[in-house]
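ugh finaly. both done.
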Amino acid sequence: MRFGRLGPGLLVFLVAVSLLTPSAVEAAPPRALATFSGTLNAGEITSPPLDWQLNQDISGFVFHYRITGGSQLNDVVYVTFTEANLVWPLLMGEGWEYCEDCSLEAGMYHIEVEADGNASGPITFDIGAYRVEQPPVDFVGQMPANSQVWFSDFGVRFPNAGTYELTLGVTSGSYDFFVDGEETPRATVTQTRELALDIVTPGIHLLEVYTEEPGDVTWSVQIKGPPKLEVRIVNTCPVLNPESGESVCVIGAEATPSDGSNASISYLWSTTASGSFNSTTSQWVEWTAPPGVASYTLTVNASAPGYLSDTDSLKVQVVPEFPSAALPFLIAAAMAVVLFTRRSRSRSAA
């Protein structure tokens, strides 16, 4: 089409349509919930364990690892999420694993990373827990020749039914690509290729990269989609105690468009129960907790014209404080219990 033949009104209309119509954009990796890195000698374990302060309840996540420092059979690490009873053994190279049944409540978790005692030298690790994202999103990995883990899988949240365009990349080796645990692969990838994936049921679907025998397989999977917002709450709330005057939490959110543009972003805050916001539509807000003992979830939704919206949440604890006037009675009660216990023991001895 030659623009010189267009009337000025039509030209303005076409430009407006191109600006308002979202198009597929380059994908980005999932957002991290927590990441950790370090270097261990053979047989060494992280001490003290790594701390993960999870600020919201989650129903699942994607675990990622990148292990470097050696290519021998025993150049591996073992990762344990202690309180969650999760273990990832024999890790080498780079990969992902979808932890579907990993419902975790907000709180402190401890992570141990251990290098195999027969490792040929120091092992460097980069590990993390990542959100289950919606397109556009991409994943990369490597299965070295001596790896004992021959697959990577990852959950992706498809918001709508329809056809999604995937780019299956490979720079060395080959692999099979599976969807939702099917026995027959959707594609055998020996060179970079495109794949149209039909999603009938919206929701989380499992994508898997698998090789029969690693021979230094380096792969990538990119799921394309319209531009989206990625929002995160940028600070946390302390434990609140309304009875002692600590009832207000100041929190804010930050949203980033996946295509790097300056989108006009709107914020909307909500909570699971009572309590009040000074504003529900500002980027920074004050939330006032009600009295009593409870935990509350504060949620922010970010939206913009032409973008997929996104949400983030924060769990807040509200606890009471014993009134100062009651303290002498509590001390007296405790002393009475101790005295009664001693008398009971004396009578038993007699």
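ok and the 2nd:
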Amino acid sequence: MLLRLLAARLALLLLIACFAIPARAADFVDSAERYVALPNQIQRVMAADQSAAVLVYMLAPEKLVGWSQPLSRGQRAYIPAKFARLPVVGRLSGPAPTASADAVARLHPDLIIYTGIVSPEAAARADEIEQQTRVPYIVLEGGIQQIPDTLSVVGAMLGVSERGQDLAHDTRTAIDGLRGRLLITESTERPLVYYGLGPDGLETGLAHSQVMAAIDQAGVINVAGLGTGERTRVTREQIFQWNPAIIIAQQRSFYNTLLRSSSWHGLTAVSKKRVYLGPADPFGWIDDPSGPNLIIGLPWLSALCYPAVYQEDLRASVRDFYDKFYRVKLTDKQLEALVRSAEAQTGETKTQISVPILGAEPVPLPGAAPNAPPSGLRPPGRGGLPGLSPYPPPSAPTNPQ
């Protein structure tokens, strides 16, 4: 295994060295094991999805030809105007693409990049677009653990190798640093967490889905459990049966409802003031999209779920990340807008909770199957109702549109 890792890293270094040589084309083997001939110089990049758009924006914003989906007013406030005004070119990937080969022809990109779930469908779509347009199209794995190498490789492709390696170093340091801190923690207790998607919060991601990647990395237990697909629709009654210790809302409407509506006050997370709003500007800290924007979500989730083992200054970390990755210096007002609803609330009950290694499979509880919660009575401090399994079956999962 060690030899394979060393070989992979050597191949990466050779690839970066190849791109560092001016005016030299290179053959690239992407994550779908496709051979792609790259041009000598890459000045215009089309992102097949918003995750790739964020990647290119962080590395070389002047080479991004447009966003895959519209930016909200809130997002544009955190992006320099000349880049916030880039056109919406549509999405080439996914079950319902909004862009086609004709759009590629109009934009004249030198390269198309997709980052996300590597599948036969994604590879076939890349082959189709590449054959129709003669524009090289690379498919890259979008998992959190691959982000450092992706930043290095794509940075070299775009002629910003030093920046790519710099961001990759910071990303790897953040991941490894958190892993190192969690290594010294012996307990395997983890909180039950519910991530409420959409305006009503009654949709959530399944364990090991792309939408839950950052939460999975934090070593907590996703109450929705395992299943096929990305997302599942749930009911209010199911959430009460799960009784999570922590609830994170994707949208403010659900966050406000949890805090203001008496119908939700019986939940452990609500009564103990452990309800949070996931920051989303200019891009999400948990998802939307799934890319290097998630890196700031890891220390934030650690601070929420394990306050006794994560003692860094969250505000300082946010300022540094936005300055380094987005090239934006946050005002005090912008910083407060990001973290105010994402921080621990006054009166929140804090309990020291220990976690497994970052990125590792969750450690099963005594007598429980891997990745499954215990049946029957819950351990103290984890959420869940006594005498009920914290995992009633969710409704049929659905894939994101």
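summary for the 2nd one i guess: DSSP finds 15 helices and twelve strands in the chain.
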